[in-house]
Write a structure and sequence with these properties.
It is built from eleven helices and ten strands. The radius of gyration is 19 Å and the shape is globular. 38% of the residues lie in helices and 20% in strands. It is α/β, with parallel strands linked by helices. Helix 2 (93-105) packs across helix 3, helix 2 (93-105) runs parallel beside helix 4 (140-153) and helix 6 (198-204) crosses helix 8. It binds adenosine-5'-diphosphate and magnesium ion (MG).
């Protein structure tokens, strides 16, 4: 049985000019323990794919099946890490993780077991020294660590990450990528991660799913990254295979799926354009789920 399967996924967003088809015919099968990256130009539909898997959006056609069960709503077996951490600002790192742990393990773990589990997950992301700090007292990298700990603490079958390191400086990002590889090697989680960073995609992934430009975006090509693990970024920098994979992704993005210059729209885009240009002009790094939804999902 396939672990996670997207079959014929399409989605229409309602606009005042009629439905806007953001995704069409998205098919993808993912094995347990696989690390899959989604890459594609801004606005192509990566976050939409992730939000459908998370159960935050409903596909118009097709659907998602996780371990034989159709995804219809958010659930703790599919934990999400957003780019902007979405921690509750009035709670400490410990309490943010605790909130998720209580939701999931209320009936199966004792108070003492929950405490141990919360501390364990914060330790995995090297946050033991700052358990009782609030989000405004820690750095961006540390907030992302807490967000990852919170997601891992739910013991999800699938970890969904939407540009988790996109807002961080290069050095912090490298540290977090290494921790993530480490954690995934230990826990063997299934991970779907959206990224804009070609090096990040090649370094972390078993497969890179490259999406075509929207509207009606779909899976363009899939690249298998056959580099043995554990992977070392310094050794890989001079590796011929690494550079070949990198080149493949760059060529897909900048030759095959070249983005038209700003302001130029194709006929297909014109036809499908959402009513408000602001919808198209979304920031590279923005997610389409509101903070309220994120908080609700985080607490779910
Ligand atoms: N809730 C929504 N309502 C209307 N249009 C949306 C909504 N969410 C996403 N879109 C549109 O769908 C397309 C894909 O968006 P998104 O998945 O956020 O892209 P990416 O994450 O690849 O940058 C964009 O054209 C975006 O404007
Ligand atoms: Mg996005």
């Amino acid at each position: 049985m396939t672990h996670l399967e997207l079959t014929g996924v399409a989605i229409d967003f309602p606009t005042s000019r009629g439905p806007f088809r953001a995704l069409n015919g998205v098919n993808l099968k993912i094995d347990q323990g696989e690390f899959v990256s989604l890459i594609g130009h801004s606005g192509c539909g990566k976050s939409t794919v992730l939000n459908i898997v998370a159960g935050l959006y409903q596909a118009t056609e097709g659907g998602v099946v996780l371990e034989g069960k159709e995804v219809r709503e958010p659930g703790p077996e599919r934990a999400v890490v957003f780019q902007n951490h979405s921690l509750l600002p009035w709670l400490s790192a410990y309490e943010n993780v605790e909130l998720a742990v209580k939701q999931v393990f209320r009936n199966s773990k004792s108070k003492a077991e929950m405490k141990e589990w919360i501390e364990h997950n914060l330790e995995l992301v090297h946050m033991s020294h700052a358990l009782h700090k609030r989000p405004d007292e820690i750095s961006g990298g540390m907030k992302q660590r807490v967000g990852i700990a919170r997601a891992l603490a739910m013991q999800p079958k699938v970890l969904l990450m939407d540009e988790p390191f996109g807002a961080l400086d290069a050095l912090t990002r490298a540290h977090l990528q290494d921790s993530l590889m480490d954690i995934q090697a230990r826990l063997n989680n299934t991970v779907i991660m959206i990224t804009h960073d070609v090096d990040e995609a090649v370094l972390l992934s078993d497969r890179i799913v490259m999406m075509t430009n929207g509207p009606a975006a779909t899976v363009g090509e899939i690249l298998n990254i056959e580099l043995e693990r554990p992977r070392n970024r310094i050794e890989l920098a001079d590796d011929v295979r690494y550079n070949h994979y990198r080149h493949e992704v760059l060529s897909f993005l900048y030759e095959k799926q070249r983005k038209p210059p700003e302001g130029v729209t194709t006929a297909a885009q014109e036809k499908n354009k959402p009513a408000k240009t602001t919808e198209l002009a979304q920031d590279l790094h923005s997610n389409t789920v509101s903070d309220g939804e994120k908080a609700a999902h985080a607490a779910a």
